Every structure is written in structure tokens, then in C-alpha cells.
Amino acid sequence: MSSASNIGFREALRYRDFTRYVAARFCATIAWQMLGVAVGWQVYAITKDPLDLGLVGLVQFLPFLALVLPGGQIADRADRRLILVIAYGVEALCALVLIAFTISGSTAVWPVFVAMALFGAGRAFWMPSGQAMVVNLVPTEVFPAAVGFNSGLFQTAVIVGPALGGILYAVGEMSLRWSGALLVYGVAFVLLLVVVALMWGIRPVRARQSGQSWTLNDVFEGLRFVVRRRPVFGAISLDLFAVLFGGATALLPIYAADILKVGPAGLGALRTAPGVGAALVAAWFAVAPLQRHVGRWMFAGVGLFGIATIVFGLSTSFWLSFAALFLLGVGDMLSVFVRHLLVQLETPDEIRGRVSAVNALFIGASNELGEFESGLTAKWWGAVPAVVVGGCACLGVMALYLWRFPELRRLDRFPKPHVTD
């Protein structure tokens, strides 16, 4: 048998269910990224209030916070494939609400917040199930290459989705004389229907020992597991605080409209930049998975993320801003790759859904609460100080974790996969 270090992504693509899964995730990510561009531009065009951009993140996080731990429990007890089908169906409903809002011509943005709350509720179920399921779709020795390819395809969608969303928005406004948002939401709705069909074609996937009875105590087992594993807890919480303070993407509509003055197409291009950087790193890891000094690489990624955030905050040039966001994506993927493999390889399959739910909770808190934090501080101080202070706080968090988690800093290799007898 080939060693894991010699196995590339082509081996992972031999498995039909994995191929369907990554194709569905690719389409779903394009849809989400398109929605992100359209919602941000539409809301800011209506209200001109940075706090409303932050509220878009907050209303996604609150239902996610309430449902993600039960979602992890369900992922360990039910068919993970079926959970994904239902959850992505909810995402399609979110797109329908946005379509209805745009057709109505309303200037009250609360229906957008309702749609984003539906999005957060759906994500509370598909995120833990999706993260927990990948390891069930390929053999253990293929898993690192599968993660690298999955991450690379995800980042490709992160590149394509915002650019496509920005272009469709501009085309809808100028050439077709439609609402640009309506065109984007319609395409996203069709893509989400494709996702549901692809996920339905995957064989049922259940965790080992999924027939055990459910208890309230089991819901928190994933959280207890993470806290007991210091390298896992350090990796997840480091990402939480770094992105919470350093996230600037919520304020991109302000930069595109008022600082860089590049319009919705420029907004789409700016949102692609982190994906370009992350995709290059993920593609490299798909061909040559990271083997040594994984802790150092993770901290280096967080440091680069913080520095790039500061540069972006101070920039008044579109191309310098694009380059800073590109480097931000490089740093983010370095951190994400290490964290994801640590979580999945350290976790027994029978609780992988619940641990993935905890991971998803931390990611959701960093992203959506980070958006709210950015919108709130931009309301107080202005967009530029909010981004720069956030980048400095990210570097401060990295320094604190270098001191408090020396075992994470010294981590050389990924652990061997946890196998349940």
C-alpha cells in the first residue's frame, strides 16, 4: 500500500460518493458567495449604515448558536447525507425569501435578516454533518489528500462565486434593466437545487454506534472532548479569536463603494482575492500534503492574516487592497488546513459529528460575530480604524497563544487517525 505522503487527490476522486460531495459543495459555495456579494451591496445601498452590514452576520449567528450543538448530535445519530439534503433545502428557501424581497421593492431590510437567519439555521445542520462525513467517504490513507482537494475546490468556488455575483449584479443593473440582486438570487437558487440533487445521490452515511439512545448529556460530549485535547482546543480557539478580531470582509461593501469606488463588480473582485490566495495553498497541499512543523505553519498563517488585514485597512489603492486580501487568504488557509486535520484525525467517528459541531460553532462565532464586531466598530470609529485595530488584535492573540499553548507551537506532525475498534 502507498504511504499517505505519496497519495494525491486523483486517488480520492476514484470514490464516487466523494466526487459527488465535493461537486455539491462547490456549487453550494458558489451560491453562498454570490449571495454574500448581493446581500452586502443591496443592504448598504438601501441603508448606508455599516451597522446593518454587521447585523447581517449577527442574525446568521444567533440561530446557528442555538442549533449547531444539537445539529452535531443529530449528525452522530442520523443519516448525514439526509441531513445535508434537508439543510441545503433550507438554504434554497433562503434564496427564495431574498427573491421575494427584491421583487417587492421594499426599503425595509428586515426580510433580508429573516433570510439570513434561515441561512444560519441551515448551516447549523449541514456544517457538522458535512465536516464529519468526508472521512467516511474515502479510506483513511487517502483522507489528507481528500481534505487538500476539497479545500482547493472550496477556495476555487470562493474565487468564482464573488466574481460571478459581482458581474451578474452589474449586468442585471446596467444591461438587462433588472435588479442586479434579483439575477444573483435566482442563479443561486438554481445552484442550491443542484446541490440537493447531488447530495441525494450519495449513499447513506451513519456514524459507528449511531443506534445508541440520545441524551442531553451527549449533546455536550463534543465540547468536553475538545477542551480535554489541548492542541485541538488551542487550534480551534486561536482561529476563533484571530478571525473575530481580524475579519474585514463584512466592511468590503463600504471599501468598494466609498473608499476604493469600484462598484459591485469591484466588490466581487475584492471578495475573490482571499479565495485566490487560499486556493493556491490548498492546491499545493492537495499535491503535497503538509507533513512537518504543522504547528509553526499554523501560527505563521495567523500572523500573515493579521498583517494583511492591517495593510488592507490602510490601503486606498484597489490593487494593493487586492494583494493584501490575497495574502490574507494564504494565511487563513494555512491555519484552516492544520486545524481541520487535527480535529478530524484526533476524533473517534462515533462523536465526530458533535466535535465537528463544536468546530463549526467556533468558526461561526469567528465569522458571523466577527462581521457584527466589524460593523459595530465601524459605526463607532469608521471603517478604516475598525479594520486596522482588528488586525492588531489578531497579532496580539497570536502572541498570547504562542505563550499559552507551547504544545501547539511545537507540534511537528499530525496525529495518527483515531480508529474505533
Query: SS-based structural class?
Result: mainly alpha
CATH architecture: Up-down Bundle
Distance between the termini: 21 Å
The geometry reads as: globular
* Text of the CATH class: Mainly Alpha
Helix content: over 70%
**DSSP strand content:** under 5%
* SSE order, one letter for each helix or strand: HHHHHHHHHHHHHHHHH
CATH topology: the name is: Growth Hormone, Chain: A
In round numbers, the mean pLDDT is 82
Based on CA atoms alone, the radius of gyration comes out at 20 Å
CATH H-tier superfamily:
MFS general substrate transporter like domains
Low-confidence sequence ranges: 1-6
What report would you give on this structure?
With 421 residues, the chain is an all-alpha fold. It has one domain (4-203, 218-409): Growth Hormone, Chain: A. It is built from 17 helices and no strands. It has helices at residues 9-12, 16-47, 50-75, 80-104, 110-137, 143-174, 180-200, 216-219, 221-228, 230-246, 252-259, 263-287, 294-314, 318-346, 352-381, 383-404, 406-409. Helix 6 (143-174) runs antiparallel to helix 12 and helix 15 crosses helix 16 (383-404). The radius of gyration is 20 Å and the shape is globular. Mean pLDDT is 82; it is low at 1-6.
Give keywords:
single chain, 421 residues, mainly alpha, Growth Hormone, Chain: A, 17 helices
Blueprint (SSEs and pairs):
Blueprint: H1 9-12, H2 16-47, H3 50-75, H4 80-104, H5 110-137, H6 143-174, H7 180-200, H8 216-219, H9 221-228, H10 230-246, H11 252-259, H12 263-287, H13 294-314, H14 318-346, H15 352-381, H16 383-404, H17 406-409
Helix pairs in contact: 2-3, 2-6, 2-7, 2-12, 3-5, 3-15, 4-5, 4-7, 5-15, 6-7, 6-12, 6-14, 9-15, 10-13, 10-14, 10-15, 10-16, 11-12, 12-14, 13-14, 13-16, 15-16
